[in-house]
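This part of the workshop introduces the protein records we will be handling. To make this concrete, we reproduce a full record directly below:
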Amino acid sequence: MSETENPFAHSYSEKRAFETLEDIKGKKVTVMGLGLNGGGEAVVRFLSKYGAEITITDMKSEEQLAPTIKSLSEDKSIDSSKIRYVLGRHELSDFENADVVIKNPGVKYAGNKYLAAAKAIETDLSIFLHFTKAPIIAVTGSKGKSSTVSAIHYGLSNLGFTSFLGGNITVSPLTFLEQTNENTPVVLELSSWQLSDLRGRKLLKPKVAVITKIVPDHQNWYGNMENYVADKKLIYADQDENDFSIFTCDDKWGDLFASESKGFVLRYSDHKPSKNGCWLNEKSEGWLQIPGEEKSELVLDKLAVPGRHMRENILNAALVLRLFGCKAEDIKVALEKFPGVPHRLEFFHEWKNQNGITFKFFNDSAATVPEAAVAAMESFGVKPVMVCGGTDKELDFHCFAEKANLARKLFLLSGTGTDKLLPLIDQKGVAYEKPNKNLDELFSNLKPYLEVLESEDKEIPVVFSPGATSFGMFNNEFDRGNKYKAGVKAVF
């Protein structure tokens, strides 16, 4: 299916709602989606600072949004007389009468009568990209985005740069816009939805664009991989020969991106050396070679985080750092200490049973696709105990079932994704506990099993890696991970 046939491929105008920051004063702005993750709140704070008249509208109720509303109402620097709330519903007039609507990326444009009525639509990213002069490092993909951007930011910050991190990693770049300039690299994690909201605007021209591994995701939204990938391509659409594009050379998607990008293309691999790019060798060491250098350089050896897939993410970060002029040895030293990212194979607790076995608990709640859960299972030298399952996103769980025997045992949370998985793992004869309807029930089954477990392995990972999304049981994957961590610490 071509991009023009893609029902989600709405193209926005290049015209800006605000040419200058002064233009914001007195404008009627409708913020569509306040939310609980900080993005909507950051938009409101930014607009309030510059004097906008703000209507906040959200389908969630006042009770559901209480933490965000409380945070805004208690901030004395915000002029609450210029803020109006319309909660639990949307009113068409709030969109028709606004000078501009600030759209939440989780809202589809297609078929949305409210957005269709708007005179102009912006997002926090489109506003940020219009006003900032900072060099942009943009990262998208299906797996590894957050680990990659976090490692890039960590490396830059430890190697002498004033760097900022934002985007899909739940930090709105509007929170640091005024602190950026030509010398402050900004690292942005971009979801396919955020990229889609930038189509046609001619605002995203990253100095370095990285696409991590592509696997099926959000198929309940996009309907097919072509529509999903079409949004990912927007990350390099406006690059030129002065910019760098980094893609895998291990699958067809990387080859497609490399054939299209106008930037200077570098490739990464988990096994194949590249004249321009980076790769892992059989010892899981990370090597790279950049344009203009005759020899390859070792940039990755010891790491604090587990998993070969995590090494690939951090290796991509190393390549970005090298392109920004950092020395290979300095990169290796800096990234050795990278602690990882919350909710992504995050080690947070350990506990010893009556047989002297130490269980190390990892929170990988951001693993919302089956391939990510498989990567978690493959990250340790011993068989982990896996906690998996959740809501389906119209994804294929066969890859999970094929690798499920890598787990010592599966403990499952109920959901439509789990329902799809069960017959597949039944065929493979994998040991699992019946699905649990909540975390309390999960822990009531998990603890007795761990208390009496005997093994020659003296350390065993217990990994919460759902491989599915969290709708229904939790607000989102971050809420899911935080509640799981709190539960483990209370029970163990």
